[in-house]
Amino acid sequence: METETTPVATVTGLYRASFSGLEPLTIDTPLTMKEAWQNPVFYELELYPEHEDENLIVDLIYDNMAPIRLQDLIRGTDIPRGIRFWPDWFDIPPFRIMHEASTRRVYPRSPGIHTVRIRTAKRKRDQKIRDFSPANGGSTSPVFEFAIAAGSERSSDMTDEDMWSLHQNAPVSFEGKETADDAR
Predict the structure, then answer these.
(1) pLDDT tens-digit profile of 149-175?
(2) CB 146 within 8 A of CB 34
(3) Residue 151 neighbours by CB under 8 Å, 6+ apart
(4) Torsion angle of alpha carbons 156, 116, 75, 22, nearest 10°?
(5) Domains identified in the chain and CATH numbers
(6) Which residues pair with 61 in a beta bridge?
(7) What are phi and psi of 36, to 5 degrees?
(8) Mean pLDDT of 31-41
(9) What are the CA-CA distances from residue 106 to residues 14, 94, 95, 103, 110 (Å)?
């Protein structure tokens, strides 16, 4: 009989920063274009006590693209010891267009609904390959959906000229690497 392993951490939700603290980020509470370009998206990790001394590796899967490696979280420096929940963040990929190996195009900061999955696992000292298997305390979050609004209803100070400058200066990515934009 196999023993069931518990994950080192699971993701409980996505959040946006506001003046009153962190607010849940959902399809019903979209980010504005300005927020998508300037502010990080927060997520909350639930850390399990039986793995309280383990360091974490974290990957982001944005709009079903290849995983993007996030910073490793080290206990005692990045995450205080003895806590149950810890907020962390990521930036929406800073590209106007991303291309997958299958040549599918993704527009990470464009208006519409976007998906995020975050996977976590234990970080091994001599780890050369990132192991997100359940045997290594790995966990993949459910798919979280959030929206980016076409207008700037939360930030009325953003003009069309501001929007154009944000898009115009953004690089293009092929499998996470910057490339020349054929459309320029």
Answers:
(1) 987 544 334 454 544 444 444 444 444
(2) no
(3) 32, 33
(4) 30
(5) 9-124+135-179 (2.60.40.10)
(6) 117
(7) -65, -35
(8) 90
(9) 21, 12, 9, 9, 9
Count CB atoms within 10 A of the CB of residue 22: 16
Q: State pTM to two decimals.
A: 0.77
Kind plus residue range of the DSSP H or E element containing 160: helix 160-168
The edge-to-edge listing of strands for the beta sheet with 177-179 is: 105-106, 98-99, 172-174, 177-179
Residue 81 has pLDDT above 70, yes or no: yes
> Residues 9-23: what's their mean pLDDT?
91
Burial 139-168 (b: 16+ CB within 10 A, else e): bbbeebebbbbeebebeeebeeeebeebee
